[in-house]
Amino acid sequence: MKTRRSGPRFLGLRDGDGDLEKAGVAILPLPYERTSSYVQGSFRGPAAVLDASSQLEEYDEELEVEIYRACNGIATLEPMRFLTETAPEAIGKIREAVQGLLDMGKFVVCLGGEHTTSLGPLRAFHARHGDALSVLHLDAHRDLRDSYLGDPYSHASVMARALEFIPSLVQVGIRSHSREEVRFGGAGNVKPYYAHLIKTGKMPDWEERVLGDLREKVYITIDSDFFDPSIIPSVGTPEPGGFSWYETTGLLRRVCEEKTVVGFDLCEFTPIEGVHHPDFTLARLIYKLIGYVCMNP
C-alpha cells in the first residue's frame, strides 16, 4: 500500500512525517457516492478536507503539542477508486484496505464519501475486536431503515446493516428519523441520544450516560450533519438544531480519555464552491481527534 504521490496530503506532510512506513496514523480517502438522496457531492469531500488541512496550524493550543509529532507522523493514502463495484463489493474492498493498515499497526482514519463507506472499516474493526467493540455514531439521522428507495445499502440504511454484526451502537445528536426507525428504542444494543433532550437541558448528564453505554473499545463514525448547519452547511441532508464545536470536541476528548478509541471515520461532507470554513473546520476536527487519541493511548 502506497502513500499519495500527488494531490493533497493531510497537513501537507511529506518526506518522513508523511511516510506510511514510519507514521503512526494512516488516513484513507474513500470518495464513494452512489445513494445520496438530496444534495449530492460527498465524493468530493475527502479531497476538500485534505486540501484545507494544509492551512492548519501544526501546534494545538489545547493539547500543547504538534499533534503529528506526538503520533509519529500522519500518512495520507491514495484515494481508493470506485468504478463499477456494487455496494457490497466496495465495502469488501474498503475492509481489505483497512485490515491491511491495521496489520501494519496503524491507527486508521477513513474519509468518506457517503456513510455507506463506514461499513468497510466497521467490518475490519469488528473482526479485530469482536464483542469488546462499541460504535459511537454522531449523526442527525439514525440511518436504521432496512432499505431506502429500494436499496438496503443506502446511506440511510448504513446502521441497519452495521447492526447485523456490531454488538453495541450508541447514537448521539439524533434529530430526524422515520416512523420505521422508532422500533429501535433505547433497549438492547442500540442507545439513541436525541438532540432536543441534550440541547434544551433536559438531559444534563448526557455525556456520562453516553460513556456508560460505551464498551471499552470504541470506533467513532461522524456524519458531518451532526454539526449545526450554521457551522457545517455543506452536507447532503442538513437538519437544524445540531451541535457546536466545543460540545463536540468536549465529548470526543472525554471518550478518548475514558475509553480506547481504535479508529474513526468522517463522512457525508458535500463541499460548496466558494464556502471554505466547513472544509477547514472538519480538517481541524480530524486533527484534534487524532490528537486526543494519541495523547490517551
Structure, described:
The protein has 297 residues and is α/β, with parallel strands linked by helices. The chain has a single domain, classed as Arginase, Chain A (3-Layer(aba) Sandwich), CATH 3.40.800. Helices cover 31% and strands 17% of the residues. It has an eight-stranded parallel beta sheet with strand order 4-1-5-10-9-6-7-8, with helices on both faces. Helix 8 packs parallel to helix 9. The protein is globular. The N terminus is likely disordered.
Short description:
With 297 residues, this protein is of the alpha/beta class. 31% of the residues lie in helices and 17% in strands.
How many H/I helical runs?
A: 9
Fraction in helix = 25-40%
Order of strands across the biggest sheet?
A: 4-1-5-10-9-6-7-8
- What is the CATH architecture descriptor? 3-Layer(aba) Sandwich
CATH class: Alpha Beta
Beta-strand percent range: 15-25%
Supply Rg: 17 Å
CATH superfamily: Ureohydrolase domain
Mean pLDDT: 93
Largest sheet: 8 strands, parallel
Distance N to C terminus: 25 Å
Give the overall form.
Answer: globular
Q: What is the name of the CATH topology? A: Arginase, Chain A
Number of strands: 10
Number of domains: 1
| H/E element order | EHEEHEHEHEHEEHHEHEH
Unreliable stretches (pLDDT < 50, length at least 5) are 1-5
Structural class: alpha/beta
SSE blueprint and pairings:
Blueprint lengths: L24 E6 L14 H9 L5 E2 L4 E2 H4 L3 E3 L10 H17 L3 E6 L6 H11 L3 E6 L19 H5 L6 E6 L15 E5 H5 L6 H8 L3 E7 L21 H14 L1 E8 L9 H18 L3
Parallel strand pairs: 1-4, 1-5, 5-10, 6-7, 6-9, 7-8, 9-10
Antiparallel strand pairs: 2-3
